[in-house]
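Predict the 3D structure for this chain.
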Amino acid sequence: MKKGTIIIALLSIMTSVFLYFYTLKLPMPTSPNVPGPAYVPKLYLTLAVVLAATIIISNWISRLPDKDVNWERSPFVIMGIALMLLSVFFINLLGYFIVTFIFIIGMVLLMGGKLTHAFGASFLFLTFIYLVFVKLFHLPLPKGTFF
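Done. Predicted structure below.
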């Protein structure tokens, strides 16, 4: 039984249940035959609880011994989490496209990729997002306070 896996699955269940109750505050559907704005989040959160419970049950049934944790890569995990938190903090300040461009480059380099691949992945991803969400769906993305 892997304790870390079970702890993460339990945290996922607790977070999903908390967010599920938060979706109860979303507006109700305007028509009985049309799903409301809370339908998809509730569906995803329910699926997350079911999958996390499946992970717990399968780990409990298999009863595999714990393996030693490889702590050599832990600084990369911490830097990845820091990069995500910085992205969330700066998205309203710098805008979605600038922050996401820097974030993707940083994550690709953090995972050992080449700089040219990082620029290519960032450019392709942002081009796709721009064409689909901005041009096709006309959804506004955060532009930032400087722009």
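The two ends are 51 Å apart (CA to CA).
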